[in-house]
Design brief:
Length: about 210
Amino acid sequence: MANRYDDETMKFIETRKRVAHMRREEARRKRNIMIAIIAAVVVLVVVIAIAATSCSCGSSKDEPTTVAPTTVAETTVEETTEEETTEEGEFSEGSKAYVIDEGVRLRSEPSTDSDIVNELSKGAEVTVISNEDDWIKVKYEGDEGYIKSEFLSNEKVSSDSDSSDTEDSNSNSSNDDQRTIETRRRTINSETKKSSSSSSNKKSNTNDKRTLY
């Protein structure tokens, strides 16, 4: 009987060992499967990230560089700005400028201490050679020299002689008008006198006829 119990005990122990071993093998197999799944997911994520990075780099290289077109309005504004800058004190080379005051001195150097080449009257036309700070190098009747920019203008200036001639012509025209008015008055007066004298003559003739009758 004792041997029988010992055999059963040994079988039970063997069975327990076999079951425990199977359970350990099953747990190891599940753990290996989980590790493999996690590794596969990690590899997949890395591959997707690399693919996305390469696609973004390729698209940025292939994208054409877009240049904003210059509109007509912007070009017009730039040209207008350049013209305003020229009018404010910059005289373009080769353009005409006009003296705005009497007795403006044309000097040999851009300095008030330099020699006087010529004296220009108001309205004199000069040709601009170059701009040098506050001085403008010009040419006038064969002479070259410098004039202060404040004494020059881009617009034509009438001289004092022209204005005096205009005033004289205006005064002459007003005098002519007065003379015409006086002549008309005299004509009217003379006609009035003639008409009055003729009417008086008619009356006298009528009176004479009445006397004769």
